[in-house]
Design goal:
- By secondary structure, the chain is of the alpha+beta class.
- The protein is built from nine helices and 17 strands.
- The longest helix is centred in the first third of the chain and has 24 residues, at 17-40.
- 31% of the residues are buried.
Length: 390
């Protein structure tokens, strides 16, 4: 059964329902296989063969969609398939779709990442400190470890990190495909002391790997953080390195949006679920609220995706008596016009969107929608993470 047949025929309604259902099932299976490949390999795109009986199609897959060739009989015309395989065999890794700036980590680099995360969790447990939940899952042997490059857009500096399994995202095939990693920074000229003890732990960071939308007024996340920092907006992430990973753009853009690879590296912060008591929750929510208000009053910028995953916690630091909140993931934010309007489409996390946005699909995000989202996050975390007698 050709899984693409119903998509390429004008008489799909004349196909048997069982054929349509089988085609849908085959497409879902194909999508699962491709998602697994993209989640475990750092790729710009990939090629695939879809074989059904005597026929086959060539596929080229990237974050915008799939380019599908015409079906042909590979038994009657074996030269086409043979030439494709011969040409593919002679392609470089980058032309096969692999990210040219991501390489399999060496044995010593893998051991270093394992040592850093193991020591981090042991130290947090021994000191009864706040712990990053399920950090050891980042070392899953189901995922290969990679040495990847991050580019600082403004300084031009290159930084290198070791990553393994993403702890957020990773299963999306199309779209922004955001993946979050616990990453370990490495240096080519590092000394032995920098690879041991607390010196090694200080090099752990959060690395966000995503594909930003190339469309209209969509801004780059690196530029947004630079603007927020320049205007002294409080309680935003401490960005270590950020920028477009490469100028390579998805090719199947005629069917869907176009995307460019983007990476942001930040200091480690803790999920809101690690809040220890009600007082700390109030402090963290207050900090996120102050960040929202100052971004709006100084820049007319609205966040548009306030959720329990985007409000994080910076642990108690020297000179402070309590932890502080961090309002993260400003990549979907935008600047409002003088009349509070915007041409940007509506976005947000459904659980925390304002009632007005949910009731009116034509409405776009505004400042008061962000304020209401803060309220829903506060209530959600308070109910789900604290014991109560109600």
């Amino acid at each position: 059964m050709d899984p693409f047949r119903p998509l390429f025929t004008n008489c799909s309604h004349q196909l048997r329902r069982s054929d349509n259902n089988l085609a849908k099932s085959l497409l879902e299976r194909l999508s699962t296989y491709l998602s697994a490949q993209f989640s475990r390999q750092h790729r710009m795109f990939t090629f695939a063969l879809c074989v059904f009986g005597r026929y086959t199609r060539f596929l080229r897959v990237d974050r915008s969609g799939i380019v599908v060739s015409e079906a042909f009989n590979y038994i009657a015309n074996p030269r086409i398939l043979a030439e494709f395989l011969w040409r593919y065999n002679h392609l470089s890794a980058s032309k096969r779709g692999f990210d040219p700036y991501s390489q399999p980590a060496s044995l010593s680099e893998r051991r270093m990442l394992n040592r850093a995360i193991t020591e981090y969790t042991k130290l947090a447990k021994a000191e009864e400190a706040r712990r990053f939940p399920q950090m050891r899952k980042s070392l899953s042997s189901d995922y290969p470890a990679y040495r990847i490059r991050a580019v600082d857009e403004y300084s031009g500096a290159l930084q290198y990190y070791i990553v393994r399994r993403p702890f957020t995202g990773g299963q999306s095939l199309f779209g922004r495909a955001t993946r979050g990693y616990v990453a370990l920074r490495i240096y080519d000229d590092q000394d032995e002391e920098a690879t041991e003890g607390k010196a090694l732990l200080k090099r752990l960071a959060f690395l966000k790997d995503s594909w930003r939308i190339v469309e209209g007024e969509m801004e780059r996340e690196v530029d947004i953080y630079e603007e927020l920092k320049a205007h002294h907006i409080p309680f935003i992430p401490s960005v270590l390195c950020a920028g477009d990973h490469s100028r390579w753009e998805t090719l199947s853009r005629k069917a869907r949006r176009a995307y460019i690879h983007h990476r942001v590296v930040q200091e480690l912060a803790f999920p809101l679920s690690t809040v220890t008591n009600a007082k700390e929750l109030v402090h963290v929510i207050r900090d996120a609220l102050q960040s929202l208000i100052e971004a709006y009053t100084k820049l007319r910028r609205v966040h548009r995706d306030v959720s329990d995953r985007n409000i994080m916690i910076n642990d108690v630091r020297e000179g402070d008596s309590t932890a502080h909140g961090v309002l993260n993931d400003w990549d979907m934010s935008c600047i409002l016009n003088e009349d509070e309007s915007t041409t940007a489409t509506r976005v947000g996390t459904w659980y925390f969107m304002s009632a007005h946005l949910l009731y009116d699909p034509r409405r776009t995000n505004g400042f008061y929608d962000d304020l209401e989202s803060i309220l829903w996050v506060f209530l959600y975390v308070a109910v789900h993470h604290f014991k109560y007698t109600g």
